[in-house]
# Entry
Amino acid sequence: MKLQKTPMILLFAAAVMGGGVYWLESRKAGDTGPKVVGAPGAVPLFAGVREADIQAMTVGREGGETIALTFESLVGPAVNGKPAAPTAAQWLVAIKNSKESASLAEVAYLGNLLATGRREKEFGVGRDRLGEFGLDQPMARVEFRLKEGKTHRLLLGKATFNRSHLYGLIDPGDKGDLVVSLVPIELEGAVTRRVEEWRRVKPSPSVAPSASPSVSPSPIVSPSAKN
# Structure
């Protein structure tokens, strides 16, 4: 009988430990557990947003560095007094008061996350508790503008205990309680790139290999010539 009781005791201990972890996480979202806002399950970060409709993105990061990305035409300097024709619209990044072509891969990655990313859970919190989620001083503030002129904001805090998501505020209001959402952890990598990584890498000019110096063969001396 002792052998039969041992597995039951182990199962009971595991259940108690699992319940303790759940309780600790629930305390972060509210004194009596998280208050789910709206329908449960994953929903889009921003309803109705398509990646192709995003015209500008600004990433403000902790420490004061800001990345400004815009989809527009780039006009070069005038030639012989005549204004240069604008280029086709492209993504540009503002660096040191000038605009350069942006890396399409980095821009597309962030734009795709904003358009197709989903929030797993939402819960209401008071403004005095934002520090628990790293949202009193967000890691990054993302703002983007659509073709129609509408803008959206996303504030990113710290990661959850198992690093499966980030805590975020989606289009937060200026007054009253706020709704914290669990947003994709991939956003962390998308917004923490260095300024240089947002630039489009220009291909290096191809250099033709230098020809090796020709060596004239030594004349062959016939045996008869030696004698």
Remarks:
- Residues 34-76+86-198 form one domain.
- The CA atoms of residues 126 and 177 lie 5 Å apart.
